[in-house]
């Protein structure tokens, strides 16, 4: 059996990955890496492919795609009620945001990412369990490896995911954020952290962070650590459109935390409830909406980094 199994999303990077994968494959062969691979064909296919590969005995499973693809592959490690420790997750980033690799320290260029894979050094990191409602109003759950949020971030992700991403991650998300701020209306919600109510009112965004970055390079959660056993929770209160626009630049360097309407917490469990449908994103994708419950799963998965 070959060592590595690559789960490739050919639609990632605005559809260019299918072509670039041929180049990556030749590079892998040149480095003496033996591998098998499969292309994904639609939503959640990467999860199915990953589970089947692990059950066949592959030890090194590599996601080739964006943060959404990484999320699907990571969820494929959840087998028979628990995350397996029999395999490790690798990443060659081919997406729009490429936010998780910023926290992990994995190079964006595939040559550097392959070098990381060759080293086979792993790190155990936490995951966030997300319980939410799908688009039919049914309860579902999946796991988050980077950042999930309700409110403005979910609204931005919907816009970005339904438009061309040819401008690249930074500009696609910046454009999507600016347009979304102009149209978005703050939601009403109640926030309970580890059993204690910390907020009840209108808000712009509430995020549960494992990694530091989202939205194509915004440093939303500078205090977040992937293996500290906590959900770094960021609450942007009832900020107006002008206020959001004037403070947007601060999110890119993490200095927004000093704003009086921004609060941050460390939590094991976060519940955000509302009588409204809260736009939800998990690792850049929109699987449904909130009310939502977040729970930390400590050292759930091994990542090559």
TrEMBL record:
Cellular component aspect of the GO annotation: plasma membrane
Co-factor requirement: Mg(2+)
InterPro entries, A to Z: ATP-NAD_kinase_N, Diacylglycerol/lipid_kinase, Diacylglycerol_kinase_cat_dom, Lipid_Phosphate_FormReg, NAD/diacylglycerol_kinase_sf, YegS/DAGK_C
Domain of life: Bacteria
Annotated coiled-coil segments of the chain: none
UniProt-listed GO biological process terms: phospholipid biosynthetic process
SMART domains in the record: DAGKc
Cited SUPFAM superfamilies: NAD kinase/diacylglycerol kinase-like (SSF111331)
Pfam families (alphabetical): DAGK_cat, YegS_C
All residue ranges annotated as the DAGKc domain in the record: 1-134
UniProt keyword list: ATP-binding, Kinase, Lipid biosynthesis, Lipid metabolism, Magnesium, Metal-binding, Nucleotide-binding, Phospholipid biosynthesis, Phospholipid metabolism, Transferase
Claim: Magnesium is one of the keywords in the record: yes
One example GO MF annotation: ATP binding
Family from the record: Belongs to the diacylglycerol/lipid kinase family.
NCBIfam families, alphabetized: YegS/Rv2252/BmrU family lipid kinase
Protein name: Lipid kinase, YegS/Rv2252/BmrU family
């Amino acid at each position: 059996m070959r060592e590595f199994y690559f789960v490739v999303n050919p639609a990632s990077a605005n559809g260019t990955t299918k072509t670039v994968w041929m180049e990556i494959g030749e590079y892998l062969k040149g480095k003496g890496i033996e591998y098998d691979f499969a292309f994904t064909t639609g939503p959640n296919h990467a999860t199915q492919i990953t589970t089947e590969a692990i059950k066949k005995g592959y030890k090194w499973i590599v996601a080739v795609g964006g943060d959404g693809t990484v999320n699907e592959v990571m969820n494929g490690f959840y087998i028979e009620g628990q995350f397996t420790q029999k395999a490790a997750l690798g990443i060659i980033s081919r997406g729009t945001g490429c936010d998780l690799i910023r926290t992990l320290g994995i190079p964006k260029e595939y040559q550097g990412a392959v070098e990381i894979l060759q080293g086979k050094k792993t790190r155990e990191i936490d995951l966030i369990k997300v319980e939410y409602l799908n688009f039919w109003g049914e309860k579902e759950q999946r796991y988050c490896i980077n950042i999930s949020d309700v409110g403005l971030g979910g609204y931005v992700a919907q816009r970005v995911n339904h438009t061309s991403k040819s401008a690249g991650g930074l500009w696609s998300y910046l454009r999507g954020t600016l347009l979304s701020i102009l149209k978005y209306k703050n939601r009403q919600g109640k926030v309970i952290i580890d059993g204690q109510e910390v907020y009840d009112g209108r808000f712009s965004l509430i995020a549960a962070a494992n990694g530091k970055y989202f939205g194509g390079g915004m440093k939303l959660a500078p205090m977040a650590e992937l293996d500290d056993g906590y959900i770094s929770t960021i609450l942007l209160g009832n900020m107006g459109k002008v206020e959001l626009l004037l403070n947007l630049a601060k999110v890119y360097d993490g200095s927004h935390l000093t704003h009086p309407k921004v609060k941050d917490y460390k939590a094991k469990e976060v519940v955000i409830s509302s009588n409204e449908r809260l736009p939800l994103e998990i690792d850049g994708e929109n699987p449904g909406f909130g009310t939502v419950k977040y729970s930390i799963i400590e050292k759930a998965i091994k990542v090559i980094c």
